[in-house]
Amino acid sequence: MIITTSRNPTSEMVERGLQLSERFSGVYQKRYRRTIHSFLEQSDSVYMVGKHGRDVLYSAYSDQPLFFHPSMAKVRVQRMLRGELDPLVSISRLRRGDSFLDLTLGLGADSIVAAHVTGENGSIVGIEKNAYIAEIVARGLTYWQEEVPGLKAAMQRISVVEGDHLQYLQKTADNSFDVVYADPMFKNPRLHSNHLAPLRPFVEEGVMTETVVKEAKRVARHAVVLKTERGSLLFSQLGFESQENHRSISYGVIYEKGGCNDEACDRHRGTDSRW
Fold this sequence. Notes:
The protein has helices at 11-23, 36-40, 72-81, 87-92, 109-118, 131-143, 151-156, 165-170, 210-219, 234-238, 262-269; strands at 2-5, 27-28, 45-49, 56-59, 66-67, 99-102, 123-128, 158-162, 177-182, 220-229, 241-245, 249-255. The chain is of the alpha/beta class. The protein has 2 domains: 2-61, Brix domain (Rossmann fold, 3-Layer(aba) Sandwich), CATH 3.40.50.10480; 72-269, Rossmann fold (3-Layer(aba) Sandwich), CATH 3.40.50. The strands form 2 sheets. Strands 8-7-6-9-10-12-11 form a 7-stranded mixed sheet. Strands 2-1-3-4-5 form a 5-stranded mixed sheet. The longest helix has 13 residues, at 11-23. The chain is globular, with a radius of gyration of 19 Å. Keywords: Methyltransferase, Transferase. This is SAM-dependent methyltransferase. GO terms for molecular function: rRNA (guanine-N2-)-methyltransferase activity. It comes from Geomicrobium halophilum.
């Protein structure tokens, strides 16, 4: 891994590049007038510290760089602002004030949607195993400028945790989150998800095991939700009830402790407001 900066860096960017080189066990190299391609001739991957928190990750195995962008989260939030329903929100029965644990953060689209729904009193934690992706997304969530009402504030309410999701679950107390969610990287790329293509060189295929699900059920107060490719056997293998089917993806859910029906949800949150 080579760590560098964009051209004409500030002293703060250089210092951060040096710090990341230690954290990532990489090598810091000054940018000067060099191209990213020239760095990729020396290393399989390059992490570029960018201006205004916009870092970029390059791979020799992909022609698409990885950088933070709210992606479909922005579209989904705009739809909800128009009164439309979001599949994840409907299935998880997520409401204002809820806590949401995202086991597979990636670029954070689902967590952004959850943060918008749960509001200022909600709690959103996203787990990302890859240190490079975790850093890029954490920076992006902090510094991204957005005009959609409330979206920037929602993004800044997400806590990014670098680590293994099973280990995190095992250290978490019973009933710590209202909803536990996972969207493991599929074996077969989603044709309509070109925005996810840059992730592939840096992530492992998500592994959902009985142990992970058991721990998720222990940690979840109301629901464990899984999104996977349509036709996957994971739902039947792991005990999920299929709820939504789209052209290429499906959602499954396990409602814990009787789930969270409207009456139970309202008692728990003290409100009947959805979002």
